[in-house]
Amino acid sequence: MDDERTEAWWARRAWALLSAVRERSPLVQRITNLVSMDIAANALTAAGASPAMLHCLREIPDFTPRCDAVYINVGTLSEDWLPSMRAAASAGRPWVLDPVAAAASGFRMESCLELLVLRPAVVRGNTSEILALAASSDSSSSFKGVDSSHDSGEALQAAKVLAQSSGAVIAVSGALDFITDGEQVISASNGVAMMQKITATGCAVIALIAAFVGADPSDALDAAACALAIFGLAGEIGMESAKGPASLWMHLMDALYGLDEQTVTSGVKIALVL
Ligand SMILES: Nc1ncnc2c1ncn2[C@@H]1O[C@H](COP(=O)(O)OP(=O)(O)O)[C@@H](O)[C@H]1O
Ligand SMILES: Cc1ncsc1CCOP(=O)(O)O
Ligand SMILES: [Mg+2]
């Protein structure tokens, strides 16, 4: 099967998954940080999904089982919200974790590790976050660093170990995105550097991953790789008209909304690395 996974196969897969999001409009519950609530909700609606921000513990038993996917992000973690995160992650729906600044405090790292045990389908973080999580989740790991001066090859090895120990697909975002289930490694190389100058683009891209998983839960590795490539492609198209971060966000959103088959199939850059 892997031998058939050519660039053309990935291009068709990316278009099929974006089309599934548009057709099924998956309901994505987000328990997320206060910075990205609006930003990533708009990315979801532009892509065709249906976002809902609910974080009250008493609402979760009624609401979460009806969702297609759950998104949990610890960016502005509080003790009050952690029980809701636990409950939503345990509700039997496919869910994704964004371990924002995982190493910022002991409480945050412990919370991320506790959530990791609840079997997210996908964890997506930047290089520093994945290195930190891998180091803390495996006492025998040699990956102790948390700063982004680590090269992506080192993060890749840490991501593979973390995927094997957690059972989650691990996505490391950056100039080149890596996605692994602990065995296969996929790269997605769309995107522009200016995306780092817009706050919460990481939160937005994992929201898109949640929508892809919700629309088609059959393969979280494919969902993560295709969502990252499509978000990056929207960034590339947006950059053609942008003057800076603010107009890039506007044009990226317009591009995400307007992506057609020809643009997706000729524009996504996804490859099997290993
Ligand atoms: N230098 C870069 N070149 C191209 N795309 C990038 C670059 N840096 C980040 N991206 C893209 O921006 C999005 C957010 O990734 P990242 O900046 O790693 O997340 P975070 O905001 O959580 O730190 C991803 O889609 C990623 O592919
Ligand atoms: C700035 C900030 N502070 C707490 S959460 C947050 C947003 C983080 O967004 P991203 O991980 O996409 O950079
Ligand atoms: Mg982030």
Describe the protein in words.
With 274 residues, the chain is an alpha/beta fold. The protein contains 11 helices and 9 strands. A 9-stranded mixed β-sheet has the order 2-1-3-4-5-6-7-8-9, sandwiched between helices. Helix 1 packs across helix 8, helix 1 packs across helix 9 and helix 6 packs across helix 7. The model has no long low-confidence stretch (mean pLDDT 94). The chain binds adenosine-5'-diphosphate, 4-methyl-5-hydroxyethylthiazole phosphate and magnesium ion (MG). The site of magnesium ion has 3 residues, from loops.
List the helices and strands and how they pair.
Elements: H1 7-24, E1 27-31, H2 37-47, E2 50-52, H3 60-63, E3 69-73, H4 82-89, E4 95-98, H5 106-116, E5 122-126, H6 127-137, H7 152-166, E6 169-173, E7 177-180, E8 185-188, H8 201-215, H9 220-239, H10 245-258, H11 261-267, E9 270-272
Parallel strand pairs: 1-2, 1-3, 3-4, 4-5, 5-6
Antiparallel strand pairs: 6-7, 7-8, 8-9
Helix pairs in contact: 1-8, 1-9, 1-11, 2-8, 2-10, 6-7, 8-9, 9-10
Bound molecules: adenosine-5'-diphosphate, 4-methyl-5-hydroxyethylthiazole phosphate and magnesium ion.
Number of strands: 9
What is the typical, i.e. mean, pLDDT? 94
Rough outline: globular
> What distance lies between the first and last C-alpha atoms, to the nearest angstrom?
14 Å
| Element-by-element helix/strand order | HEHEHEHEHEHHEEEHHHHE
Which cofactors or ions or other ligands sit in this model? adenosine-5'-diphosphate, 4-methyl-5-hydroxyethylthiazole phosphate, magnesium ion
Our estimate of the beta-strand percent is 5-15%
What's the alpha carbon Rg, rounded to whole Å?
17 Å
